[in-house]
User: What shape does this take?
Amino acid sequence: MIVHHLLKKKSVLNTFIKEIRDQDIQKDKMRFRRNLERIGEILSYELSKELEYSQETTLTVLGEKNLKVHNNDIIICSILRAGLPLHQGILNYFDAAENAFISAYRHHPKNSTDFEIKVEYFATPNLEGKTLIIADPMLATGKSMVTVYEAIKKFGTPKKIHIVSVIGSEFGVKYIRKYFPKNTELWIADIDTTLNEKGYIVPGLGDAGDLSYGIKL
Assistant: This one.
């Protein structure tokens, strides 16, 4: 797996990451969602540099211009519900993409710290030969991402997989590396070193779904 850790270089992305981590700024849900969307746009721009391109001729009012444009059949798959603002940011840049949505959540038997990942809903076009972008803001243990990948395999084999995430853990990155194809590319804003006993990223930012849409039961 090829890992693109964007905060290794300084850019405006640093500001957006700082704001989504800030517990005071997080109280503004609209701003939190919008920052996730903007981060998705930045990650998409960087990702676009690795797509396949072909030359096309554009006719202007004064003549012709040859331009290289990407010619990839893209499907954006977001993990509900936290992935929705990030999904929108990616879709803003790949507006002709097809879309898929999958539910994946942590199920804690008997309210223990142990958990398993449940997938109960998946809507997708055929993935065969497509460029698949999987969007999930948080890459903590990596178990949700791997469970999602196993669930979507029966819907076709993508030509290429890109994973777009905002904050991950070193453990999560190492974990998914074992399960995804070697040519998979991970586009992630920042990577933290620690997971706590509940499998949450430290310092992380908290629950992206709750911060975007409110606390769930």
